[in-house]
Design a protein that fits this description.
Keywords: Aminoacyl-tRNA synthetase, ATP-binding, Cytoplasm, Ligase, Magnesium, Metal-binding, Nucleotide-binding, Protein biosynthesis
Strand content: 15-25%
Cofactor: Mg(2+)
Radius of gyration: 37 Å
Subcellular location: Cytoplasm
Oligomer: single chain
Catalytic activity: tRNA(Phe) + L-phenylalanine + ATP = L-phenylalanyl-tRNA(Phe) + AMP + diphosphate + H(+)
Helix content: 25-40%
Number of domains: 2
GO molecular function: ATP binding; magnesium ion binding; phenylalanine-tRNA ligase activity; tRNA binding
CATH topology of the largest domain: BirA Bifunctional Protein, domain 2
Number of strands: 10
CATH superfamily of the largest domain: Bira Bifunctional Protein, Domain 2
Structural class: alpha+beta
Shape: elongated
CATH architecture of the largest domain: 2-Layer Sandwich
Length: about 350
């Protein structure tokens, strides 16, 4: 064992006087002493030859030798990186840096935020609700009982039956939850994702985004609805866009109307997008049905209101001339990069 002790002392002397001029010399030190085939590992392997009654003493000595060598290596590393630090100080920080790609919001997010901003200027608050809904909030509260034929207009993704839970088919369910908790006056818009069991194509998808609006107060009229929507269309598409209302049917409004604008792609002359009519439907609207008000204990003799709902994808399609709804959800960077300047 005396020979092993003498060997350790000799290596310590070598390590003490070892100097490294550069990083390569430091790496050579590491390989020689601390590498997988280095001196420290070789000496540690001698423990098997140490008598059992001396293992504790020699174990401590060998561990001290390993720590001594590692400290020397760290000191060498510190001394040989001084040149790199000096070089870093000589960098000309006034030079322009490397450019980074600029990201952007998704086009649907851009349009949704713009819609919300327009209606906020009219005093509408924003309300949100769950995407998984019960049958009452999605259908029953909106004047669609179980046997109502209007349910056939919406193919629904049901999650559970008895009780019925489903992926909401419209954000009218958010309006229902607002009317449960708040009494008139009510003025909210309800943006969010909705789901319907439809065949995916360039014109339809199994999920899309809506912004619905609800205004309930005393003496609210259809004229208020029209002026509100006129303001929205002009703010979104410009002052020159033409607007028309067509009678329609929705179970939760009466009377009901669909709103069209002049086609922005052909200027009203007729094209494939507007089916050569010069008009494009953008939303449905109407006066809130008295039955809906009664479902939430709102006095239909005292209060009236209007509601409207639009698809964000359709608004985005017209605003940015998008010809395929599937582009919104394909995450194609070539498509998304086109909206960088729109943020």
């Amino acid at each position: 064992m005396e020979a092993l002790l003498q060997q350790i002392e000799n290596y310590k002397k070598e390590i003490t006087v070892y100097e490294a001029a550069d990083a390569e010399a430091t790496e050579a030190f590491r390989i020689k002493y601390l590498g997988t085939k280095g001196i420290v590992k070789a000496i540690m392997g001698e423990m098997k030859n140490v008598p059992n009654d001396q293992k504790k003493q020699f174990g401590q000595l060998l561990n001290d030798f390993k720590l001594f060598t590692e400290e020397k290596y760290e000191a060498l590393k510190l001394s040989t990186t001084g040149g790199a630090q000096t070089a870093a100080k000589e960098i000309d920080w006034s030079l322009p840096g490397d450019s980074f790609p600029v990201g952007t919001r998704h086009p649907l997010t851009i349009v949704r935020n713009e819609i919300v901003s327009i209606f906020k200027r009219l005093g509408f608050a924003v309300a949100e609700g769950p995407e998984i809904e019960d049958d009452w909030h999605n259908f029953g509260a909106m004047n669609l009982p179980e046997d109502h034929p209007a349910r056939d207009m919406q193919d629904t993704f049901y999650i559970n039956q008895n009780p019925a839970w489903l992926l909401r088919t419209h954000t009218s369910s958010v309006q229902a939850r607002v009317m449960e908790k708040q009494k008139p006056p009510i003025r909210v818009i309800c943006p969010g994702r909705v789901y319907r069991n439809e065949t995916i194509s360039a014109r339809a998808h199994c999920f899309f985004h809506q912004v619905e609006g609800l205004y309930i107060d005393e003496n609210v009229s259809f004229a208020d609805l029209k002026q509100t929507l006129y303001f929205f269309v002009q703010e979104m598409f410009g002052k020159d866009v033409k607007v028309r209302f067509r009678p329609s049917y929705f179970p939760f409004t009466e009377p009901s109307a669909e709103m069209d604008i002049s086609c922005l792609i052909c200027g009203g002359d007729g094209c494939n997008v507007c089916k050569h009519t010069g008009w494009v439907e953008i939303l449905g609207s109407g006066m809130v049905h008295p039955k809906v008000l009664e479902n939430f204990n709102i006095d239909a003799n005292k209060y009236t209101g209007f509601a409207f709902g639009m698809g964000v994808e359709r608004i985005c399609q017209l605003k940015y001339r998008v010809n395929d709804l599937r582009l919104y959800s394909q995450n194609d960077v070539r498509f998304l990069k086109q909206f960088t300047s729109a943020v």
